[in-house]
Design a protein that fits this description.
- The complex is a heterodimer of chains A (828) and B (297).
- The longest helix of chain A has 21 residues.
- Chain A starts with a helix and ends with a strand.
- Chain A contains 19 helices and 46 strands.
- Chain A has 828 residues and is α/β, with parallel strands linked by helices.
- Chain A is globular.
- Chain B folds into 2 domains: 126 residues, no CATH class; 158 residues, Sandwich (Jelly Rolls), CATH 2.60.120.
- The longest helix of chain B is centred in the N-terminal third of the chain and has 17 residues.
- About 4% of the residues of chain B have low confidence.
- The chains are: A alpha/beta (828), B alpha+beta (297).
- At the A-B interface, β27 of A face α2, α4 and α6 of B.
Chain lengths: 828, 297
């Protein structure tokens, strides 16, 4: 009996095994997040053929009301088969259960279910990126379009499913992901490929030997893996490459850099005085000329130029990695590097990356944001076509805002909950002022970092101490970034006629006169002093001067210009001979006699007197220059800070209110004037105007029109700002030419034309809103904001296959004048 | 101390009043005159005595460019110039002269005759063999270091037991006063506080302090700093024989605290030798406020 039972058991087991072995299986790998109307919406399905023969089968997908249309005919080989099924995405955004059924002539072979999401197409936007993570729905509410997922780390740990899940989840909230490629800080990598000093010792701050071919190939392969794996996921559309690596870069004596230097110079050796990356102070250099003018081929200068441009290996490596990503990812994909101007002032930071980014702290003065943005523009001048992004830090260090050791009367309320917070949330008015200051420049994206300090309470170093700051961002997002973003990113910079030289030679031979992108040194405070006094200075490098750019300027500022090269020195003398005005402080080389002398001023620890002393300095400069130079614009008080951009004959005035006072958030410590104060006055633009529009309020503004200027009364809230469009002629109307009918699933276009009173197209970039409402009066996918160049733009929509047919309405609005137009479209 | 503050205020007011700006046109004329080969020599010479220090500096540059080292004797007349930029150029020019004797003579003239102590010291920097100078950066303010560093512990150095000597010949550095092994047993013992009341009334010039202290086992940290609350007036500092940096703001620095990074130089669980060279130009002088070690993380 026992033997029979045993036999039967074995027989049943064998049968089950055979039966199991005979079943086809299906599962969904890769992504389940898709973008409406995307070019290549492929759903990856793994099908296992358990047999030993090829099997002909049919795969049908049912989702969103589609039920088995266009089945895929397959020939399945034994084992695993990856099938990429093209999905239909012309649906309303949302989640859709999907069922896949595999069948053959013999009947159903397998079935599997999942849920896919279809997200609305992104449209024309100014990206807002969170350099970090955070709660997705909250980020979306605040207007973020991108956030960071450490994809390369997840892939290195073979957590590929997690990487995809993260990107899918973000995409479902209409947020795209970028990677932070940061191999350079991995311990084992550093140990194997560290920079070493002349004695063979690693430097105290570890840094990768980026010229080592083995290190280069290792990082390249890692980047290639990310690119190959995510090439087909459009929710992954950027990579930050090796952030912050150059802070710790030092001359490396492992053999590779020395060999490269010999190759670059025809055999020269690294000068013996070279010990660190930041140059050699001229005092004590034997034979250093008393004129402090060095020959262009000074050996130390040659070395350091080579080092910072390509020699330390980082800029070329960033370029290699950028190329590696682009080799696999053929769709729009952005590589970037930061902090791009925390280096001496020489072109090339980030190598061939698509964009450069830089972060700035808003304390003590948020106008530092504009300073750093101008430094970015100067850096990107050396890589034509390179994009510029600008990041605001969402937190302040305690010792620069509310030092722990400092006891004050009436301490702020947040101290009770967060007495030991290392980093605290910036004040809402600082966020606003910094925002207005940076978007006055032409940027391709704006970024923020320090998400815990913005979003909600956390246990890490970044603490959430001010709940109002995120609401300030939400408001700016809704009223400025979204509606005006497509236009803001297109308005060209206006050619400045005033410049501040940041000299590489000077940085290398004095080590202390450069800003390093951190608002260090007098040159940085001078820039802010000029902003407060209605100048619009460009930052220029030695390289700008050597390519002849001084001809564009009327005034050249030379703060701390203690050492210059012969060529730059001669170009400045030539500039003066041609009538250019030089303003310099007491450190100027003796061979230049400034037209106007100023005294460098030291910043105080206390915020208010510091701001006053620099506002006063700027005022003195303005008074001395007044007989010889006037800016194109003016304002009635120093806290109305103005900047202009220009497109053809249209001027764009960016006005911000920097009037601030101590509050009770951190003001007790006197380190930061954290509260904005309302401010009113008059802004003057030295041109004739026919009409002026407030682009944020979408209406014309009153002004006094004079033959050679226009005077505009302004009144701004605390931390407030405005963008004014100044035109020769008023805008008269907006016209809409749309088809009378459209079909679900098929695109249609509509032409929008804005004209002036004389019937012509304005020479201007005008923001336009276009909203397509379905039969339920809901805005449909594709609705959004655009930029009408010379008053014209064509918008397209594709009514969803699963949206109700009937009478739809297309509404358009000119966001300058507020003029509207509308058209009915029969969708059937 | 109040007398010193009033004296400093008077100096600053004097400098401010002296620095009158003649505007663009006069300077343009001078530039054109000096750039014109026919008038360059005369114009440069005339510029040497202009009321505008920027013009004097410019004239000096061109005068030396035209005459080379033959200019040196003429430049003695500028040794008492009150402008730091003028004296700085003069001292660099004199220090780089091929004719070392002539260059040194001019430097000595400035060192001995210039009414401003800071400018005399500027010349002394070039004249003497004392070349110790370092561009100092506190790690917490390093523009290329983006992390918060906060003090987590303070170790106060003793208030008493500092070995002290004056250095009127300004050659202490040549005699190894800063070396660990230097025998300072013959030096006087002073405590923290001005030296006027400790046996050196109204001494002006260079003096040296030495002290040895022991530190505990290494404390977990990212940086270590020496914190000087007050040295009257300037200081140059060595730790364990290694030069760490200076506090050299002239007389105005007498009451300004300063920090020096000593992360690399500090020795944990060992004796450390701190040497401070002080320069004082007027009234009381010395390390007059406590010194401590700050541990940062």
């Amino acid at each position: 009996m026992k033997k029979i039972t045993l036999f039967l058991s074995i027989a049943v087991l064998c049968f089950c095994m055979v039966a199991e072995e005979a079943a086809f299986t299906m599962d969904f790998s890769y992504r389940k997040g898709f973008i409406r109307l995307e070019e290549n919406p492929l759903l990856h399905i793994n099908i296992n053929n358990p047999g030993r023969q090829d099997v002909s089968a049919e795969l049908t997908l049912a989702y969103a009301g589609l039920n088995g249309l266009n089945p895929l005919k397959l020939k399945l080989t034994p084992g695993r088969n990856l099938v990429k099924a093209r999905l239909e995405t012309r649906f309303k955004p949302g989640s859709y259960p999907l069922k896949a059924v595999l069948s053959s002539a013999a009947g159903q072979l397998a079935a599997a279910e999942t849920t896919i999401t279809i997200t609305a197409e992104q449209g024309d936007i100014l990206p807002v990126m969170m350099w970090g993570g955070g709660n997705l729905s909250e980020l979306k509410r605040l207007g973020f379009t991108h956030y960071l997922v450490m994809v390369n780390i997840l892939l290195a740990r073979n957590q590929t499913a997690d990487a995809i899940t993260n990107i899918d989840r973000a995409l479902s909230e209409n947020i795209y992901c970028f990677d932070r490629f940061s191999l350079a800080t991995e311990k084992e990598f550093l140990e194997k490929f560290q920079r070493r000093d002349r004695n063979g010792k690693p430097y105290e701050r570890p840094n990768l030997d980026a010229s080592n071919p083995e290190a280069i190939e290792w990082t390249r392969k890692r980047a290639a893996r990310v690119g190959e794996f995510l090439a087909e996921h459009p929710g992954f559309d950027g990579a930050l490459i090796n952030s912050e690596v150059r802070d710790g870069t030092q001359p490396s004596f492992t053999g590779f850099e020395e060999a490269e230097f010999r190759k670059a110079t025809g055999g020269a050796e690294v000068p013996s005085q070279v010990k660190g990356s930041n140059g050699v102070p001229y005092f004590g250099l034997p034979g250093f000329p008393s004129s402090r003018i060095v020959p262009d081929n000074d050996p130390l200068l040659v070395y350091y130029q080579w080092f910072w441009k390509t020699g330390d290996g980082w800029n070329p490596l960033q370029g290699i990695l950028s190329d590696t990503y682009h080799e696999s990812i053929k769709r729009p994909f952005l590589t970037f590097f930061d902090p791009a101007v925390r280096v001496p002032p020489v072109w090339g930071s980030g190598g061939k990356v698509d964009a450069i980014n830089h972060w700035t702290y808003t304390n003590p003065d948020p106008l530092r944001m504009g300073l750093a943005a101008d430094e970015m523009i100067a850096m990107a001048d050396g890589a034509p076509g390179q994009k510029i992004m600008k990041m605001t830090q969402l937190f302040w260090y305690r010792d620069r805002s509310a030092p722990v050791a400092m006891k004050v009367e009436n301490p702020p309320s947040w101290i009770q909950e967060e007495p030991d917070a290392k980093y605290i949330t910036i004040s809402p008015d600082h966020l606003k002022i910094a925002f207005w200051n940076k978007i006055a420049r032409r940027l391709d994206a704006i970024l923020y970092h320090g998400s815990p300090s913005l979003l909600s309470k956390s246990k890490n170093a970044y603490r959430y101490t001010n709940p109002h700051t995120k609401e300030a961002l939400a408001e700016l997002s809704a009223s400025v970034i979204k509606p005006l973003g497509p236009t803001l990113k297109r308005i060209p910079e206006r050619q400045a006629d005033v410049a501040i030289l940041q000299s590489f030679t000077n940085a290398i031979f004095t080590q202390n006169n450069h800003s390093y992108g951190s608002a260090h040194a007098f040159t940085s405070d001078l820039h802010m002093a000029l902003q407060w006094n209605h100048f619009q200075p460009a930052i220029i490098y030695d390289e700008h001067i050597l390519r002849g750019d001084l001809a564009k300027y009327k005034v050249l500022f030379l703060p701390g210009a203690e050492v210059l090269t012969q060529s730059v020195f001669e170009a400045i003398l030539e500039f003066q001979r041609g009538g250019g005005i030089v303003v310099a402080d007491e450190k100027i080389v003796p061979g230049i006699l400034p037209d106007i002398s100023i005294k460098s001023v030291r910043r105080y620890t206390v915020a208010e007197p510091s701001k006053k002393v620099f506002q006063k300095l700027g005022q003195q400069i303005k008074q001395k220059l007044a007989p010889y130079y006037q800016s194109d614009f003016e304002a009635s008080n120093q806290d109305l800070v103005v900047r202009t951009r220009r497109y053809k004959t249209a001027d764009y005035l960016f006005v911000l209110n920097d009037k601030r006072a101590y509050g009770d958030y951190v003001g007790q410590y006197r380190r930061v004037l954290e509260n904005g104060v309302p401010n009113a006055g008059t802004v003057t633009l030295r041109r004739k105007a026919g009409a002026i529009y407030d682009l944020v309020k979408h209406q014309a503004v009153d002004f006094q029109a004079l033959p050679d200027r226009c005077e505009i009364p302004v009144s701004l809230d605390a931390g407030g700002g405005m963008i004014l469009l100044v035109l020769d002629e008023p805008l008269a109307k907006i016209e809409l030419n749309a088809p009378g009918t459209a079909k679900p699933g098929e695109p249609f276009s509509a032409d929008i034309r804005i004209t002036t009173a004389d019937g012509n197209a304005p020479d201007a970039l005008i923001p336009v809103e276009a909203t397509l409402l379905n039969t339920q009066h809901e805005p449909v996918a594709g609705s959004g904001w655009h930029c009408a160049a010379d008053g014209r733009v064509t918008v397209s929509f594709t009514p969803s296959l699963n949206d109700a047919a009937g009478e739809w309405r297309l509404n358009v609005r000119d966001l300058a004048s507020g003029n509207t137009a509308s058209a009915l479209i029969q969708v059937k | 101390m109040y007398r010193k503050m009033i004296w400093l205020f008077a100096c600053c007011l004097g400098l401010a009043l002296q620095a009158a700006d003649p505007g663009i046109e006069p300077r343009r004329k001078i530039r054109q005159a000096i750039e014109n080969p026919a008038t360059a020599q005369t114009a440069a010479e005339t510029a040497l005595t202009d009321a505008d220090p920027a013009i004097r500096l410019y004239g000096l540059y061109h005068y030396t460019r035209i005459h080379g080292e033959k200019a040196l004797p003429k430049l003695f007349a500028m040794s008492m110039d009150k402008d730091p930029s003028v004296i700085n150029f003069l001292t660099m020019f004199a220090a780089s002269a091929q004719d070392r004797e002539a260059g040194q003579a001019l430097l000595l003239e400035i060192m001995n005759k210039n009414p401003n102590h800071t400018l005399r010291r500027m010349a002394a920097r070039y004249a003497s063999t004392f070349k110790f100078h370092k561009v100092t950066k506190r790690r917490k303010f390093d523009p290329q270091w983006d992390y918060e560093l906060r003090p987590v512990q303070t170790i106060d150095l003793p208030l008493t037991g500092w070995r002290f000597t004056t250095d009127p010949l300004v050659n202490g550095h040549e005699n190894g006063f800063y070396e660990i092994s230097f025998d300072d047993s013959a030096w006087k013992l002073l405590k923290i506080g001005g030296w006027n009341k400790q046996g050196f009334p109204d001494y002006t010039g260079i003096a040296w302090y030495r002290i040895t202290f022991t530190l505990p086992e290494k404390i977990d940290s990212k940086a270590v700093e020496l914190y000087f609350r007050g040295v009257d007036e300037c200081a140059w500092v060595w730790l364990n024989g290694v030069y760490c940096g200076q506090h050299d703001e002239g007389a105005a620095g007498w009451n300004r605290p300063f920090y020096l990074d000593v992360t690399e130089e500090i020795k944990w669980n060992a004796a450390n030798t701190l040497v401070v060279r002080v320069d004082n130009s007027t009234m009381d002088g010395g390390i007059w406020k406590p010194v401590s070690i700050e541990i940062l993380k």
